[in-house]
Amino acid sequence: MSTKKIRTTDILKAKNQKKLVCTTCYDSIFAKVLQDSSSLDLVLVGDSLGHIVQGNHTTLDVTLENIIYHTKCVKNSLKTPLLVSDMPFLGMSTDTATLFENCQKILVAGAEAIKIEGHHPHLCDQISLLTGYGVPVMGHLGLTPQHIHSLGGYKKQGKTPKSSEILMDAAKRLEDAGCFGIVLELIDFEVSQKITESITIPTIGIGSGPYCDGQILVLHDLLGMNTEFTPSFLKLYETLHLKIDTALKTFAHEVQNEIFPPKT
Question: May I ask the CATH class of domain 8-239?
Answer without folding.
Answer: alpha beta
